Amino acid sequence: MNTIIEEKLISLGITKNYKGYRQLLLSVELALEDDFRLQSVFKEIYFPVSVKCGCPYYTVERNIRTLSHKIWKKNKEALCKTAGYKLSSEPSVSELIAIIVADIQRTEATATV
């Protein structure tokens, strides 16, 4: 699963040299395991990722927000394509995670059909 997530992040212009790369990867991984985690992002995603990365939960949120801003500024078209609809504003951190999760789930669903 990590390879699929890594490919998606790279397609959005996010590479391993960003602090938030691993945090976003782990966040998407957790949300793919159980998408109900997206309903309680702080408790179900940020906290577990912060434990794995050895940092405070708010650092996880900030680093992913920085990535969201970078994607929005440099790769808006790819993000809208990933979302499957035109975005009118930069997505929040939880929206970015949800967009990536939904795209991977759609891709996997069409691959199994």
Short description:
This protein has about 110 residues and is mainly α. It is built from six helices and no strands.
Describe the sheet with the most strands: none
Q: Per the principal axes of the C-alpha atoms, what is the gross shape?
A: globular
Distance between the termini: 18 Å
Q: If you average the pLDDT, what whole number results? A: 94
Instruction: Write down how many β-strands occur, each being a DSSP E stretch of 2 or more residues.
Output: 0
The radius of gyration over CA amounts to 13 Å
User: Helical segment tally?
Assistant: 6
Order of helices and strands: HHHHHH
Query: Which segments are poorly predicted (pLDDT under 50) over 5 or more consecutive residues?
Result: none
State the secondary-structure class: mainly alpha
User: Assembly state here?
Assistant: single chain
- How much helix is in the residues? over 70%
- The fraction of residues assigned to DSSP E strands is under 5%
Describe this structure in words.
The protein has helices at residues 2-11, 20-33, 41-53, 57-74, 76-83, 93-112. The model has no long low-confidence stretch (mean pLDDT 94). It is mainly alpha-helical and 113 residues long. The chain starts with a helix and ends with a helix. The chain contains six helices and no strands. α2 packs across α3, α2 (20-33) packs across α4 and α2 (20-33) crosses α6 (93-112).
